[in-house]
């Protein structure tokens, strides 16, 4: 009987994950699976719930299991920043990391949030940022991650409003040389008629709305919520009532920042339009 040649072992799939708390709502696995199918890459992308205070041990377990990298979401983006051995310029500017890349001995950190937001606004939604008056609600890690890319578009002005005014003031001081910046508490926003209002608070996760006067938005302006929700969010409903011509959730940002992360892990850039269209047409539960 002729002995058959030994068959080569099947190449292991690309192991990736998203780490957060909560995490059950995440659509990242579906997005990255679609990217993999598009590019012929076998992707195993997992939702990973990390307990508060246990981020480092959770990531260490992923690395031990052979993961190539992971995305990081609320509330661990600053934990991820501190975890990294090396940081990209974007991550250093943001002071937060949403993408970890695991090399043999080193963990590199990047931040693709601002890239995703600007790409969705400018390329997908055709919302101009240059020369416009922008209001960003919230002064946490999400805002810090998107400020530099927004300012790079050359807005006329950018105002950051936060529940705690001092935190907003501290944040804009980090970007003082990058553009015309101002800050205040949510109840003391001095300007009106903003062209674009971006909600970077976590209020929509709890289906609540920051206290906002009805006169903030220029008639026909745009509102954008970093949170994605199939039925909309209280902030987007507020924007529609305030006369917004465009009210968009963060699904486009999620897909665009995911594509940038996928490129960092694989060196290959997926096409985002068809993935975003499919997710809008057939919402994933």
Number of E-state strands: 12
Question: What is the number of helical segments per DSSP (H or I, 4+ residues)?
Answer: 10
Mean residue pLDDT: 91
- Which CATH class of the largest domain applies here? Alpha Beta
- Which segments are poorly predicted (pLDDT under 50) over 5 or more consecutive residues? 1-11
Order of helices and strands: EHEHEHEHEEHEHEHEEEHEHH
Please provide a written account of the structure:
The chain is globular and about 50 Å long. 45% of the residues are buried. The protein is of the alpha/beta class. The protein is 35% helix and 22% strand. It contains ten helices and twelve strands. Helix 1 (28-39) crosses helix 9 (251-266) and helix 5 (113-124) crosses helix 9 (251-266). The protein has helices spanning 28-39, 55-64, 77-83, 89-94, 113-124, 141-152, 165-173, 234-241, 251-266, 273-281, and strands at residues 14-20, 43-49, 69-72, 86-87, 99-102, 107-110, 133-137, 157-162, 181-185, 194-199, 217-225, 246-248. The strands form two sheets. It has a six-stranded mixed beta sheet, with helices on both faces. The protein has a six-stranded parallel beta sheet with strand order 9-8-7-10-11-12, sandwiched between helices. It folds into two domains: 14-111 and 254-281, Leucine Dehydrogenase, chain A, domain 1 (Rossmann fold); 114-249, Rossmann fold (3-Layer(aba) Sandwich), CATH 3.40.50.720. Residues 1-11 have low confidence and may be disordered.
